[in-house]
């Protein structure tokens, strides 16, 4: 067998537990697009250029306690996406923030999970 390293190569998948599968599926299909990789019952997986993003119905009784996990999606036009989210009634957490490395916009999914959009700075680090 070859010499394999034990370093992490990339994020293979992110799974988010949801309380209402259909509502969440529709939300993420609008956000991500219809790049469904796989769906079976109360599980759906989207393909984001080699990273799987999955939704899974919470099976326990009781309420979902969203963790303020940081899930960041990279996009090309953050202003256009902000208008789309606002037009869909999505709860934004503040406005677009300009950082040296790019622009960020935080918002909430129907389950209370915080998500963030990232548009990289084409001029490079240090420019605002």
As for the CATH topology of the largest domain, it is 2,3-Dihydroxybiphenyl 1,2-Dioxygenase, domain 1
- Main CATH class of the largest domain: Alpha Beta
How far the N terminus sits from the C terminus, by CA atoms, comes to 49 Å
Structural class: alpha/beta
Average of the residue pLDDT scores: 84
Quickly count the helices. 2
Number of strands: 8
The biggest beta sheet reads: 4 strands, mixed
Low-confidence runs (pLDDT<50, min 5 residues)? none
Q: What is the number of domains?
A: 2
User: What form results from the Cα inertia axes?
Assistant: globular
State the helicity in percent bands: 10-25%
Q: What would you report as the Rg, rounded to the nearest angstrom?
A: 17 Å
Order of strands across the biggest sheet? 1-4-3-2
- Proportion of β residues? 35-45%
Q: Per CATH, which architecture of the largest domain?
A: Roll
Question: What does this protein structure show overall?
Answer:
A hairpin with a 2-residue loop joins strand 2 (36-40) and strand 3. The mean pLDDT is 84. This protein starts with 12 loop residues before the first strand and ends in an 8-residue tail after the last strand. The protein is globular, with a radius of gyration of 17 Å. By secondary structure, it is an alpha/beta fold. 17% of the residues lie in helices and 39% in strands. Strands 1-4-3-2 form a four-stranded mixed beta sheet, with helices on one face. Strands 5-8-7-6 form a four-stranded mixed beta sheet, covered by helices on one side. The chain folds into two domains: 10-59, Signal recognition particle alu RNA binding heterodimer, srp9/1 (2-Layer Sandwich), CATH 3.30.720.120; 66-128, Roll (2,3-Dihydroxybiphenyl 1,2-Dioxygenase, domain 1).
